């Protein structure tokens, strides 16, 4: 699709949806039932169910279990077209969107839901040493590093009879950090112990570093305490109240203290998509656009900002940047556009987030859940884990995805069967762990006793 597409000559309004995450997909699905023409733009061809990315990273699920082509999701809506491209500029006065392919598209209404990315708090050089988790590509890179740490330890045992401690450091004690740490402990204790002959994967050390006083800071204190208890049972240690000052190749610094790490993962911060600042409106410290009760930026009632890109205040607090608010914003934006198209734009209610609760899994049969609907309760342990399983299967898009994930979870969690742990890409890790030792350090090979 190229050139300038004029909206004025069309009988129906043109709506452009930028981003096919939770907010964008929900907006497009709702708009697909309205008398408008919709174009969905995303630089990837698939929608990713981000809450389960960490399970791809730890080889429990495959990428195809949590991702689905955007065209397949929206194919039943004849008024929706999908363009795989990237937005590089907006002209809000002329109602135009400029794409990386040099295409220019004209709209009557614009929905922007491009989400967020990693924030290294000004230390972008840390990204190569401590990957974050936002995309399928991130998940496969984390999987590569985690699995390779065990492989290289086995190799070093063969070559020199010893290996550095298997220390895994997760920076950030929010839901993503807790889930990553628990999953690393799970696979090393439950699923990998029978695969190696010279190392004991169950001796792996997992450490969560959190700068604030508590892990899972958005959760009630009783659930924070329960989370610590469950992590301790998984041999996951936590350290709070100290900020990372340096991430190097194979180590992390907390002030003057050096912590050796064979694999460092980042789950400490996010920032809004760069498109937020590109719009030219006031943004918060994370780059999210300040919007009104209708999700509109100042002076543009035809533009809607959704998900992590939107800074929405409700009852004196900012609406959290997680999946549930994003989906609700996308649905609201579509409904609001339908009202504007129908000429019913007076006296309409603004967006209000309906909080259903939060949950985070910690390991096999371990989780915490703050339930706010249909009743209020704080659960932990096995019951919270069951709720987590059901909710995440329910919200997966597409029957095939739900069936595939449920089958794999049954195979893995109930049968204690491991997933497919494939290593693709480079066989090196940052730091002193390389594919092979330098020639001057490599002794003549000699058999060593196998681990009993």
Give a written overview of the molecule.
The chain is α/β, with parallel strands linked by helices. Helix content is 29%, strand content 23%. Helix 1 (22-31) links the parallel strand 2 (14-18) and strand 3 (37-42). The chain is globular.
Number of domains: 2
**Helical segment count:** 11
Total strand segments:
27
**Main sheet: strands, sense, barrel:** 5 strands, parallel
Strand content: 15-25%
Q: Which outline best applies?
A: globular
Biggest sheet strand order reads 6-3-2-10-21
Instruction: Look at the helices and sheets and give the structural class.
Output: alpha/beta
Whole-number average pLDDT?
89
CATH class of the largest domain: Alpha Beta
CATH topology of the largest domain: FAD/NAD(P)-binding domain
Percent helix, as a range, is 25-40%
Give the distance, in angstroms, between the N- and C-terminal Cα atoms.
63 Å
Radius of gyration over all CA atoms, rounded: 24 Å
């Amino acid at each position: 699709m190229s050139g300038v597409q004029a909206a004025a000559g069309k009988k129906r309004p043109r709506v452009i949806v930028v981003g096919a995450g939770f907010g964008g997909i929900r907006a497009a699905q709702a708009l697909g039932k309205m008398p408008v023409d919709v174009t969905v733009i995303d630089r990837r061809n698939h929608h990713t169910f981000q809450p389960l990315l960490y399970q791809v990273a730890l080889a429990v699920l495959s990428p195809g279990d949590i991702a689905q082509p955007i065209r397949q999701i929206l194919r039943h809506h004849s008024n929706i077209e999908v363009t795989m491209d990237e937005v590089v500029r907006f002209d809000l006065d002329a109602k135009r969107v400029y794409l990386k392919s040099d295409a220019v598209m004209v709209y009557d209404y614009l929905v922007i839901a491009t989400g967020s990315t990693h924030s290294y708090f000004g230390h972008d050089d840390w990204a190569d040493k401590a990957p974050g988790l936002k995309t399928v590509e991130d998940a496969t890179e984390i999987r590569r590093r985690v699995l390779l740490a065990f492989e290289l330890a086995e190799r070093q045992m063969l070559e020199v009879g010893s290996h550095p401690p298997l220390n895994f450091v997760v920076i950030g004690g929010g839901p993503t950090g807790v889930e990553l740490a628990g999953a690393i402990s799970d696979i090393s204790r439950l699923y990998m112990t029978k695969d190696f002959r010279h190392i004991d994967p169950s001796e792996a050390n997992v450490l969560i570093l959190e700068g604030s006083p508590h892990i899972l800071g958005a959760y009630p204190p009783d659930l924070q305490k329960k989370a610590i208890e469950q992590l301790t049972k998984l041999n996951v240690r936590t350290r709070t109240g100290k900020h990372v000052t340096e991430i190097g190749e194979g180590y992390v610094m907390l002030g003057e203290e050096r912590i050796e790490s064979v694999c460092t993962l980042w789950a400490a911060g996010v920032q809004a998509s760069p498109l937020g600042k590109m719009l030219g409106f006031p943004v918060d410290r994370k780059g999210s656009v300040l919007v009104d009760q209708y999700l509109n930026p100042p002076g543009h009632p035809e533009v809607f900002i959704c998900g992590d890109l939107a800074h929405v205040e409700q009852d004196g607090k900012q609406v959290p940047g997680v999946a549930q608010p994003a989906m609700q914003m996308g649905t609201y934006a579509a409904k609001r556009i339908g009202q504007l198209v129908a000429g019913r734009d007076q006296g309409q209610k603004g967006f209000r987030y309906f909080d259903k609760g939060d949950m985070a899994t910690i390991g096999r049969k371990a989780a915490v859940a703050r339930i706010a609907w249909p009743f209020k309760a704080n659960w932990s342990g096995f019951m919270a884990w069951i709720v987590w399983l059901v909710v995440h299967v329910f919200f997966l898009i597409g029957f095939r995805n739900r069936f595939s994930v449920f089958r794999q979870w049954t195979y893995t969690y109930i049968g204690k069967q491991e997933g497919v742990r494939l290593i693709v890409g480079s066989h090196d890790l940052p730091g002193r762990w390389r594919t092979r030792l330098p020639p001057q350090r490599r002794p003549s090979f000699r058999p060593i006793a196998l681990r009993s």
